[in-house]
Amino acid sequence: MAANTRDIRRRIKSVKNTAQITKAMQMVAASKMRKAQQLAIDGRPYAQLLNKISAAVNEVHGDEKHPLLQQREVKKELVIIISTDKGLCGALNTNLLREAAKFDPEKTLFITGGRKAAQWAARSRRNLIAEFQLKDTPSFVETKVISKMAIEQFLDGSVDKVSVLVTRFVNTLTQEPVVFQLLPVSASPSNTKDMEAAREAGGLDVEFEPNSLAVLDALLPYYAHFAIYRAVVEARAAEHSARMVAMKSATDNAKSLIKDLTLEYNKIRQASITTELLEITTAQMALG
């Protein structure tokens, strides 16, 4: 009996220590989550405005085609995967890499931003051409290295399409993996709506100096750079949100387990005490 209570006390102490760790991780993740979420939300109006400008330029550009707009038969595709460096964030990486596994390994090259995606590419023997490590709060300059490499691969004909696979931040409890086309730049559904709205408002009646092609030369690379930066910001907001929720769940489960173990410990102690009382009472009665 004493051995049982001793084992339970050890388990309770161990679970309490684990709960303290998960609680601390939850608080750290919550602090980072608020900053990352605010950064992701603050950048959305600018991204929408950039979509409108790109849609307007594409609309008035005419038959001239910029190299970053050229549609080609997709023989090789480059996929940029933005993952996390660490685990303990629920099913976030599992869901992301499940989508990555759907790409044809024979026709797909990969660039990863994050250790988890790089490890997956190595394990599954995918054609990984570059691996980038990103900070918790990466700057535009740091993420620009990824988009520059993607643009170079597309312009020299190594790939015919560039896609980005990232976990999109919806809210604190919801994060979803999404794939969007980076190159060739094309009108996304949001861009199409922007074009229609601009057309109705007369927003496309504009002049470009020196000409629309020069504007595209400056705009389209920046559009690709900013799209990657936005993807990384969204991924970080999703990561910290998922980790905070996962650590809160772990802390709550630890508390529930401590409660159950304490109840079991008290039952065993009560049974032990009752047995001892019965033995004493029996002995007294025998001595009578």
UniProtKB/TrEMBL annotation:
Function: Produces ATP from ADP in the presence of a proton gradient across the membrane. The gamma chain is believed to be important in regulating ATPase activity and the flow of protons through the CF(0) complex.
Highest taxon listed in the record's lineage: Bacteria
Subcellular localization: Cell membrane; Membrane
Keyword entries, A-Z: ATP synthesis, Cell membrane, CF(1), Hydrogen ion transport, Hydrolase, Ion transport, Membrane, Transport
Keyword Hydrolase among record annotations: yes
Main localization (coarse): membrane
Similarity section: Belongs to the ATPase gamma chain family.
Listed InterPro entries: ATP_synth_F1_ATPase_gsu (IPR035968), ATP_synth_F1_gsu (IPR000131)
GO molecular function, one term: hydrolase activity
Membrane topology type: Peripheral membrane protein
A single BP term in Gene Ontology: proton motive force-driven plasma membrane ATP synthesis
Pfam family, one: ATP-synt
Cellular component terms per the entry's GO annotation: plasma membrane; proton-transporting ATP synthase complex
Subunit structure: F-type ATPases have 2 components, CF(1) - the catalytic core - and CF(0) - the membrane proton channel. CF(1) has five subunits: alpha(3), beta(3), gamma(1), delta(1), epsilon(1). CF(0) has three main subunits: a, b and c.
Protein name as it appears in the record: ATP synthase gamma chain
